Amino acid sequence: MTYPFGRNLLLSTVGFERLIDAFEQIENAEGSSKAQSYPPYNIVKTGDNDYAVEIAVAGFEASDLDITAEGNRLTVTGKVKAQGKGEYLHKGIATRDFTHRFTLAETVVVRAADIHNGLLVIDLRNVIPEEKLPRKINIGESSPRLVATDAAA
């Protein structure tokens, strides 16, 4: 799926895929904002209602990372502790403090987080309430209508 103008919006939202097209016009009018690029991350749809946020955290330990879910905001912060011993002749692996903020749909919940092969993986699920699920409306099976009566009659 491609979002030529809504890509920047998609980078920090989860569960809003259908709204991206509607926001393309707003983004074009206001100019596109630069998405955070360090550390790189992926947002992956892993099932019909399941997602994963993968953040490259090479050089970070679990104790260096903080994940907070508050309301519809997911914040991931990395704080570098002491640098390794020795003098770097070349330092190609960046390890600097970072904060990523993701806006979640109201129905998205954070299920778990773990580090696999240098990636912080945060599992999310879009839990849609029963009343919000699509349902078939049969014709002729409506609830009884209230008929206003005239008190003077």
Q: Can you put this structure into words, describing what you see?
A:
It is elongated, with a radius of gyration of 23 Å. It has helices at residues 7-11, 17-30, and strands at 13-14, 41-45, 50-56, 65-70, 73-78, 98-104, 108-116, 119-126. A 4-stranded mixed sheet has the order 1-6-5-4. Mean pLDDT is 79; it is low at 25-35. It folds into 2 domains: 1-35, no CATH class; 40-130, Immunoglobulin-like, CATH 2.60.40.790. Helices cover 12% and strands 33% of the residues. With 153 residues, the chain is mainly β.
Q: Can you give me a brief rundown of this structure?
A:
This protein has helices at residues 7-11, 17-30, and strands spanning 13-14, 41-45, 50-56, 65-70, 73-78, 98-104, 108-116, 119-126.
| Rounded average pLDDT | 79
Strand content: 25-35%
Shape: elongated
Largest beta sheet: what is the strand line-up? Answer: 1-6-5-4
Q: Radius of gyration over alpha carbons?
A: 23 Å
State the domain count.
Answer: 2
SSE sequence, one letter per element: HEHEEEEEEE
Number of helices: 2
Just give the CATH class of the largest domain: Mainly Beta
- Please describe the biggest sheet, giving its number of strands, its sense, and whether it closes into a barrel: 4 strands, mixed
Quickly give the CATH architecture of the largest domain: Sandwich
Extract low-pLDDT stretches. 25-35
Range of helix content: 10-25%
User: Helix- and strand-based class?
Assistant: mainly beta
CATH topology of the largest domain: Immunoglobulin-like
